[in-house]
Amino acid sequence: MNIYFDFDGTIADTGPALVEAVRLSFLEQDLPAPTAEQIIPLSGFPLQEILGMLLGHAPDSQEIFEFRELVEKFYAEMALGEICLFPKMRELLHELSPKANLMGILTNKPTKCVLNETKHLEIQPYFHVILGADVAGAAKPATDILDMAHIMLELPEDIREESAQNSLMIGDSTADMGLAKATGMTAIGVTWGAQSASVLKEGGADHIAQTTSELREILLALLKK
Predict the structure, then answer these.
(1) 40, 65, 82: which is the final residue of a domain?
(2) Structural domain tally of the chain?
(3) Does 61 share its domain with 91?
(4) Which of 138, 152, 176, 192 is the most buried (most CB within 10 A)?
(5) Whether residues 93 and 152 fall in one domain
């Protein structure tokens, strides 16, 4: 069984750093700063889409591009000092590593950023592939990111569909659930990140975990099948 994780809001609590970076960017531009309650539910989307929704501009507009650079600057200045693993996550990754066929991270965050953060959190060795939407060419729920993971893992084309069907996708947003449903993976939603259990279920979650302990129980049961 292959296990793919989202990163932000699933493995690591990056929400406070994102919220502060967005708020500082708004204040820098003399705009009313959005609240955490407005920002966190959007955190499963790429940053330019988050800003587009908050500012009411098209995600590919010049205004959003410039604003994104400002947010990324503030985020980079504080992220490594702010982010942390969710409770019992390190222990879970350690336990799963020898049991899974492979483990990977598929995130809408830029690849370089998540590589820096997984290195800082000392969890990189658990993963066979760590991939962001920038390298994949499209953000989740588009299936490009799993296709690119298969290429990076050097999986032969004739077994990629079977590999996906033998995979689990764990995440905190409907983007993760959508990727799983589109590729035949089993979708596992976690509720300690961006979105609620009801939203994740509507998005296609096959299983819901409210705590890391519940996630462990679900994963160990699925790995035994």
Answers:
(1) 82
(2) 2
(3) no
(4) 176
(5) yes
Residue 41: both structure tokens together: 């539910």
Give the Cα separation of 136 and 131 in Å (integer): 7
The predicted structure's pLDDT at residue 132: 95
Helix (H) or strand (E) run with residue 169 in it = strand 167-171
- Whether 225 shows a pLDDT value over 80: the answer reads no
Structure tokens at 86: 């969710």
Write down the pLDDT at residue 45.
Answer: 85
- Do 180 and 186 touch, CB atoms closer than 8 A? yes
Would you say 166 and 2 are in contact if contact means Cβ atoms under 8 Å apart?
Answer: yes
- DSSP secondary structure letter of residue 34: P
Helix (H) or strand (E) holding 39, with range, is: helix 36-39
220 contacts 36 by C-beta, under 8 angstroms: no
Share of the chain above pLDDT 90, in %: 84
Using 50, 70 and 90 to split pLDDT, how confident is the model at 23?
Answer: very high
Structural domain boundaries, residue 75: 15-82
